[in-house]
Amino acid sequence: MAIPQRKTDIGPPKYDQFLPPVIKKNYGKWKYHEVINHGTMVHVGESGDKLWTVRVASPRILATATIREHCDIAEKYCDGFFRYTTRNNVEFLVSDESKLEPLKKDLTARGFKMGGIGAAITNVVHTQGWVHCHSACTDASGLVKAMMDELMPYFESKDLPNKVRLAVACCVNMCGAVHCSDIAVVAVHTKVPTVAHENFKNMCELPTVIGSCPTRAISPDPANKSVKINAEKCMYCGNCFTVCPPISIKDPERDGVAIVVGGKVNSLRSNPKFSKLVIPYISNEPPRWPKAVAAIKHIVEVYAANARKHERIGEWIERIGWERFFSLTGIDFTFQSIDDFTFMRDTMRTSSTFKW
Amino acid sequence: MKKYTTPLIDELEKGPWPSFVTEMKKAAKTNEMANDAVGHLEKCYSTKVGYWKHGGIVGVLGYGGGVIGRYSELGEEFPGVAHFHTVRINQPSAFFYTSKALREICDIWDKYGSGLTNVHGSTGDLVLLGTKTDALETIFAEYSSRGWDLGGSGSALRTPSCCVGPARCEWANYDTLDLCYSLTQEFQDELHRPMFAYKFKFKMSGCACDCVASIARADMSIIGTWKGDILVDQKEVANYASKGMDINAEIVNMCPTHCMNYDGKELKINNAECSRCMHCITRMTKALKPSGERGATICIGAKAPIVVGSLLSWVVVPFIKVEPPYTEVKDLIRKIWEWWDDNAKPRERIGEVIEMKGMRSFLEAIEVAPMPQQIREPRKDPFMFYTEEDMVAFKAKEAEEKKTGKYKF
After folding, report:
1. Is the CB of residue A216 less than 8 Å away from at least one CB of chain B?
2. Quick one: which of A96, A235, A286, A337 is 20 to 30 A from B1 by CA?
3. A58 close to B (CB below 8 A)
4. Same domain for A181 and A89?
């Protein structure tokens, strides 16, 4: 079969051809919306038109067969229009109320899970992991699956003081907003990398490798026409490995995950925040990472029991203080939680007022 | 087709959350590449290491990005993933699709790739996972002839993305979908042909809720805001109260600027002191809405931790009009890129370059005046630069004061 003529620099198709008529009509003229339950919300236009959104979980990795099933559903109930969200959910949009219940029934019958809207836990932003990334020190999709199986009630029905945004990064590159999540898992290396000196000169650029190191731990090794790594300075970030394949940092028994909490990206009530390190290391335990999952669930439960309505995890912790967070959760405080990198001087306590 | 036993990843087909393993196996039923990807993943789970090599340089003619080369170290054991490249398809604004369009995307992908996708990748692209080098040109011809283009990768403009905006949200202060589309079209060359020191990301959010996490993830975060008063519908306020909302506890006392009060009857806002955080509006969306001039705040610099720590974007332009054809925004972008280009070392994001060179150099280059809205607090140290022009200006001001007899600080 003939291959069609290629075109370049055309950019994406214009969005308006994918908008359902009710959205075109009410574009920029929505008046308000109401969250009906974690799976459904309704937007009301100034015109009085209503648009129901049903949000459905997705594992982000989708087979084309599943995308086609989304298409089938959209054709049956939504005139073929639907969308995905920034957190990898699917949203079916219905402007005719009589189609809403049949849609939800059909989704349930097909085994789709509805939820994630409002003060809930929605889908997890995550990276490729072992499925498809060269620098992964864990599998992101597996961790997400194991976490969400456990947190399912908070996706489907249980309320929290506010939304809890979760993320998983399979290395410290942190693709996605992992560094500003309520609770996030970041996979870490814990050992100084080794260098295959014989390949260095053919595969790596000396200044790039030296420049890739945030702690200046890498220096030239002229005798080997390679580099050496100062073990006292190396923080195992793996950036040198990224720019230079003969450097090796993976270690199945030492790679693991750390847990950070208290980040957010919106400006509601308080400014956006980075997530902060609370658990420095848990071993990689595929296929279900039971300890990491238990730690996350525990933090969610302590937050749910103690925070005020509308407080995000980071806001709750700022109100009660980090010392209280550690005592309430029973998490051991370790040297790793004291910053000795970029932000050190901003993170020390410079007063004698704290809680016992 | 080879049959793999996968006891470890089979565990991830159990439980209520939708399973990515089930998805991979679904694709594997009819696709050799997906089948080997399943076996390959089981191997990773058994040894606790990944086997993907560093990306190689692959792509389509005339483009420097859009395809990420991916090869397995275990190509002989799993020939279907020996090459397993990623193709990034530039998504439509706000991820709206028709079933017809997506079916077409799926049909092409089943023909030339693994049948596995990410809907969507972190940056926003519709990601097609796993194909071979010799299929790339055909894939590109098939998609581009049907109106789909590739997204960005490498040291280029990355695929811009936006929130749902005015399409389905009452809080959008500008048309995020249209700006996203317009900037993507305007900067096609920068997107497809890496010419920067490192990556550059735009993200558009219609309000401070920032549903695309622009403040954390975009070198240039374009966040909608307004300049007028918050209009209060007191009848709706009473409705919220009658439905059980504790307006003092949940709204007034949670206002970061303490610019509101409620006496049980009327909610009053001292708008001059409001910092437009969106808390009250999001909690009482039927009762409160912004009014007056709309536009955006431009923040610059966010990035993830590599190399020397994460950055959140900081305010550069407190308010800019965002209206088609977006000339003001586009001109600003060009000035920002020019300065970055002149000053960046390889693999330096713009936020890092500003840290190195200072905000003054950056602001002067893009012709933006210093404003207290740009900072959280002024500097704490006395180590600052004075240019000859600064001194001339300070002295001239004092000479003027002597003439008028009135100090002007």
Report:
1. no
2. A286
3. yes
4. no
